Automatic annotation (TrEMBL):
The keyword Transmembrane applies. InterPro entries: Sigma_reg_C_dom, Sigma_reg_N. Residues 196-370 form the Sigma factor regulator C-terminal domain. Residues 36-57 are annotated as: Disordered. The chain crosses the membrane at residues 70-96. Residues 60-147 form the Sigma factor regulator N-terminal domain. This is Sigma factor regulator.
Amino acid sequence: MKDEWLKKMQAYERGELSPEEEKAFEDELEKLEAYQSHIENQTPEERKTRSNSSEAKLSKSVRKGKWRALLSNAFSAFALFMLITMVSAILTSIYYGAFSKEVQRDVTRSVFATQYPNIRMNSSGFSSGFYFNATLDGQLVKSFGSYEEDVGTFHIKNILDLWGIGSLDFYGTEHAPINTFFDPSVSNVESDWGTLERLPEGTLSEVYVTLAAPKSLDEVFQHLEPLETIYPQWYAVDVGETDEFSRSEPIGFPDDPFILDYLPAPESETMTEEKTGWFSSTGSSSSSRGIEVYGDEEVRIDIFKEMLRVVANNQRLVKNLTNHFAVSSEDALAYVNENGVQIYGLVLTGPTKELLKLQEETWVKHLRVNDSILWK
């Protein structure tokens, strides 16, 4: 604009402007002369005030510009953040698809089933969030015979398949598993028979029983079958622990082993005979059935091994979930594959006074009382 005005002034001096342009330019010159005369007639104080006013206006203008730039940058950053968040939510939902959710549920179920005696993950809810975060929340239950008691909750956080327990809360310390069996060779340990004697009639108790010697599952069933009101809930398996006294980190499996949805139920085969005139034909049909109360040893062992395999093959998912047990699931699986499944401990539940009668059984070496509730 300054260059344009100078060009117009040079054209005026050379007489190259039209009469109208010349008249307009002279009017501008008169205004400039009047403004110059006004400035020259100002006192020093007035000039200082004018200078300060100009600087203030300039400073105000600069501040406004800075705020506009900051607000513009903030809005752009917020818009970018929201866009990234929305994209991350979509990608997170895809990453934790239906298959991944089921795998993680199966892994978590297997961890609780094999490493938390008589604690089962009941209902659970899986939700994915932003930036590859997900949570698994659920209820923990304990079985007392055919009755189930809510004993706690869990909340597990997941970031890119790395799990850690945000919280594992039991409704009172009496509901938490004591996780204590003893080596069958240990003899200088007092059992809790006195505790069972002091508990009143009308209560159900949960006890940890160490056997006098490790036994096969079939042998354990032979001892349990005559006990009509006492129910096995969990079997502690010898997986090669080296501690000769206390086995405080047991690995085992529940009496109801079907915690993995994809495992088929046992089948029963029915033979049929059909007669047509002089001829007859025979056939067979298979149908699913429930597991035998004191039977299906091979089915139970196969499911136990499958749960160990699920945990062993998904170490990233359970790295912070198992409290770093003395024997890993991978080592436990290798041990039972080589040496077979030998049971050295049981979690039993039943009427307190019926459990007290176990004191007469020669196959019982030690007994610890873990929990007791009123019979409902």
